[in-house]
Amino acid sequence: MKTSKFKKQINLTNDGNLQLFFIGTGSAFNKVNFQNNLLIIKGQDHLLIDCGNICPYALSTYNTPVSNIRNILPTHSHADHIGGLEEMALAGRYIAKIKPKMIITDEYKEKLWDSSLKGGCAYGEDSCSGNFFTLDDYFEQIKPVKLENAPRPAWQVNVGSINIKIFRTVHIPCKFNDWDKMFYSIGVLIDDRIIFTGDMIFDRPLLDWLTKDYSIEAIFHDCQFYDGGVHANYSELKTLPEELKNKMYLCHYGENYKKFTPKKDGFAGFAERGIYYNF
């Protein structure tokens, strides 16, 4: 894996190699490094994973309007991950005149619309006549296909040349250990090579499954610097085997990240926003 610098605007196409570009690498309230939203680019295809409430602004700092994004995968319904979807929806409908494709299961589609997007997006040109918009008026749904025999709910989808496997994660702990009752959150396996955890607590069985069944080159794992909460904390991640930490870049971190030295603790380092990771 090599890195290359951002120039004038984000390249949404390339010569066919797999690239990752972090719009931001910070936690929910991080204004310095923006929020942990990731863009995947490969050949003529791209996919934005999450669009947080400051993501459209962050994209503008890279001279790339949110209306340029054609494919989106939301991982869960916290504002730093889906708060910018309303702007994406409205910019697509009224400015770019396009419907971005949204990778989403029927289950989460209903939750996302009813609990997060409906209030700002349902009312439109003809709502006084009782005709309200739905998510399908703004986005083209792409349904992932369920993976059989996975140790937890998982799906697969292709975005052009990009293969995406989606797996349920535990972000808000639930004593029931029942996926139907738990807060919906997912992580992503990219081209069977790269793990992007999304938001989750420390989950060694998940990492063991993915690293056993797939040839993993890099892991981009969310982290926090305090105990408790709803993310894997730094002290927990330090207990992982060296072979895992050597591949692991930490993301979703707070503004106090400079107080920590992940490379000295065996990690590959902190993920950085505004550069291309080339695989």
User: Looking at the structure, what is the overall shape?
Assistant: globular
* Secondary-structure element pattern, one letter each: EEEEHEHHEHEEEEEEHEHHEEE
Please give the share of residues in helix.
10-25%
Point out poorly predicted stretches.
none
Number of DSSP E strands: 16
The structural class is alpha/beta
Instruction: Provide the spatial order of strands within the biggest beta sheet.
Output: 1-16-2-3-4-5-6-7
**Subunit arrangement of the protein:** single chain
Cα end-to-end separation: 5 Å
Measured by DSSP, the beta-strand proportion falls in 15-25%
What are the defining features of this structure?
279 residues, alpha/beta, 7 helices, 16 strands, 23% strand, globular
What do these coordinates show?
This protein has 279 residues and is α/β, with parallel strands linked by helices. 20% of the residues lie in helices and 23% in strands. The protein has seven helices and 16 strands. The protein has helices at residues 55-61, 79-82, 85-96, 106-121, 204-213, 234-237, 242-245, and strands spanning 2-5, 19-22, 38-42, 45-49, 71-73, 101-103, 140-142, 145-146, 154-159, 162-168, 186-190, 194-196, 218-222, 248-251, 269-270, 275-278. The chain has an eight-stranded mixed β-sheet with strand order 1-16-2-3-4-5-6-7, with no helix packed on it. The chain has an eight-stranded mixed β-sheet with strand order 8-9-10-11-12-13-14-15, with no helix packed on it.
Task: Provide a quick synopsis of the model.
The protein has helices at residues 55-61, 79-82, 85-96, 106-121, 204-213, 234-237, 242-245; strands at 2-5, 19-22, 38-42, 45-49, 71-73, 101-103, 140-142, 145-146, 154-159, 162-168, 186-190, 194-196, 218-222, 248-251, 269-270, 275-278.
